[in-house]
Amino acid sequence: MSGPALHLAVEIDGDGAHPAAWRRAAHSPGQLLAPRRVARVAAIAENAGFTLLTLDDGVLPPGAAPDPVGRIGAVERAAFVAASTSTIGIAPVVPVTYAEPFHVSSQLAALDHISAGRAGWVVTEEERPEAARAWGRPRVDDAGARTRESRDGVEVARALWDSWEDDAVIRSVATGRYLDRERLHYIDFTGETYAVKGPAIVPRPPQGQLVVLGRPDRVPSAQLDVALVEGRDLASVATAAAAAGTPRVLAEVEVALDTPGATAAERVADLERHTAWSDRGRLRHIGTADQLVAVLVELSRHVDGVRLHPLVLDEDLAVLSRLVLPALSGRRLVARPLPGTSLRSALGLERPANRFTAAAVATQEDAR
Amino acid sequence: MTLSDPLDVPRPHAQLHFGVFFQGVNHWTIWSAPDSGSQIDPASFRQVARTAERGLLDAFFLGEGLRLREVDGKIHDLDVAGRPDAITQLAALAAVTRRIGLVSTSNTTFNEPADLARRLSGLDLLSEGRAGWNVVTTDNAWTGANFRRGGYLDHADRYRRAEEFLSVARALWDGWEDGAVAPEVGAPAWSAPGGVHQVRHRGPQFDVDLAPTLPRSAQGHPVIFQAGDSGEGRDFAARNADVIFSGHGNDFDDALAFADDIRRRLRAVGRPDDDLRILPGTEIILGATEEEAQEKKRWIRLQQVTPATALGIAGPLWGIDLSDRDADGPLPKEDPVVSENDSSFGARRIADPRAVVAEWQAKAEAYGWSLRETVIALGPQRGHVGTPSGLADKFAHFVRHGATDGFNVTPHLIPDGLDDIVDLLVPELQERGIYRTEYTGTTLRENLGLREPLTHRSAPGRRQAG
């Protein structure tokens, strides 16, 4: 195999993957929402050499008391982090179950401009009925309807990203035209529940299209660049990966690592006294850094990468950074992203042709 | 104009506040000049914001458009267009600035309170109390064609929706009690029991029920800006706004009349008449001498009103496609064609085109103006032109007499257009004692000299912002 085989992503929302992670955090609860904290965690992930960080989100509070009920919007955090980092990819979670796809498309395109092409989008769903009450919208109840909203939302966002061709801004002093309107396109999307005219307000993102990540059972694989696959063991991850049908596949892996102060098992047990770490059907590693390296080496035969969900960021991120990533890097299994490269190229994905430009070229060729 | 004796003026200690408006879409931003930079590159935004901060400005201001402008059913191609989502861009600027306010223009018609209030809260927390929200409304179905809701809102309902929107947003911003989050490591619970309140609102526009996810910021709430100029808009501002971004900043008498009207409306709703800042949008053109400033203005106007733009402005007025005419030649001889079905959007409507054309023709004939010269001379007269010293005196007069509290400046060049103002005008203002020499606070609300948020007046036990 040529080149690094494994892309590493890390989820950095809140204080970690465990709902009670805040109890082992190195700061007071109030500091969770401080800008310095947001920037610091991102800087640690970037310095560790991760390809991508993701930021979980949703309109509802992240947890119920006594655990954290506060969370700054993922797009806002992502933009803030983009301005203070330089190489790591940044992907906010944005569900489009109720949100306006036109706004979502603009926000994400803006994030790609702000980060000079390091932006991604994790598509999820607002599943709970409380989300509809928060938005003041009719409930999108069943799984099929939620999938429809995700599919249409991604389709609209992607079409809007193409609605400006790359060279739509022409600044022609001779004719007085700033834009070439022939290179701007109405998307004229009509779905089952809404229609969107276009074109976008934001010029085409630097990557052409942001890297779109999601679960292939929730978003059609043709719309995803990266499938996020789950499974409690290697075999089920491998099966899910083989079925994903997307250009890249990342496995979801929850990790709790031995630290100098306590073993992983002790740390998990400490948090389990307060709240259960609910089983989401994901591979879970509780143990040493070396054992995790072995698991990841094994996974690299089946997937293009993993998204790690550390138990407690303040504890596990340090171990990942000091032991796990260097060990993988030493085996040439991972490489840190290079300055100036887009997230797309860090993941080995092509910059996509613009659908409207491509259509125009095809029409010309047909005419010949 | 000479500087009045400070003791003879109504507001001897009034301070002038500046904002900078990175406008995004308009023909006032000159894109054809060699030193005109990118309108989308993050470096442009960073540079303008940092220059503004160097000049101790109060606010960096972004506009919004939710559909590209069209003329006669075609996308308008002459002006700068294409810009980032405002709150997203401002969240990035929060990371690279320290004191400047970050103001987003965000529409209440095509947003929902749970989402927008939360995004603004996030910006406010990430900037540690520097967020502002310019509340705007839309009523046209043309914009609605980009949204799930479509074009559904009656004109009369747009301010009603805005007001209800704002009241839901404020309830969300007040949903956490101060000190709701545990201040110490090892606390038994992340937030104090009962410290976070569910917000339930049932009204004609919104029916929502949710738990807010964020505490109040260092300034309590984002600062509310408002820009509507109709009687309805002014009343809305008097009831709700902290800052008015008006169009009345050129002529002293006009500005004073507007300010007096706003103060009357403020008193009518029980607010003190210095409870709100009036910052008209303006352009400032500086020269070392009056002649140099006037010469620069001529150059700027010709760059702003290109031949194509002149024809583009005159065309809708005549109701005729004039794009193949000579803008530097005489005015069209034809009478205007008035159509009921205007398919132009995002541009100002003209109430009586026949009267305007008749005036243009008469003046152009009297002065021997070309079409382009007529568009420049008779178009909206905006901005202040002069030497730094002359304009500093003029602005002192405006501010000390209560005609404005300052200006929201639109530079004609991005990203360098603010440099002259910061480097040449600001020192003159400082010499006259009407402009700060350092930031007076850490939040936007403090720097503007505003009181705590409207919902937090005289609430004992609440933290006082500002």
What does this structure look like?
The complex is a heterodimer of chains A (368) and B (466). Chain A has 368 residues and is α/β, with parallel strands linked by helices. In chain A, 36% of the residues lie in helices and 15% in strands. Chain A has eleven helices and 13 strands. Chain A has helices at 35-48, 74-84, 101-114, 129-135, 143-162, 234-244, 264-272, 289-299, 313-330, 343-346, 355-367; strands at 7-11, 52-55, 89-92, 120-123, 169-172, 177-179, 189-190, 195-196, 211-214, 226-229, 248-257, 283-287, 305-310. In chain A, strands 1, 2, 3, 4, 9, 10, 11, 12 and 13 form a nine-stranded parallel β-sheet that branches. In chain A, strand 11 (248-257), helix 7 and strand 12 (283-287) form a beta-alpha-beta unit. Chain A is globular. The model of chain A has no long low-confidence stretch (mean pLDDT 96). Chain B is α/β, with parallel strands linked by helices. Chain B contains 14 helices and 15 strands. The longest helix of chain B is centred in the middle third of the chain and has 17 residues, at 157-173. The model of chain B is unreliable at 459-466 (pLDDT under 50). Chains A and B meet through helix 1, helix 2, helix 3, helix 4 and strand 6 of A and strand 4, helix 2, helix 3, strand 8 and helix 9 of B.
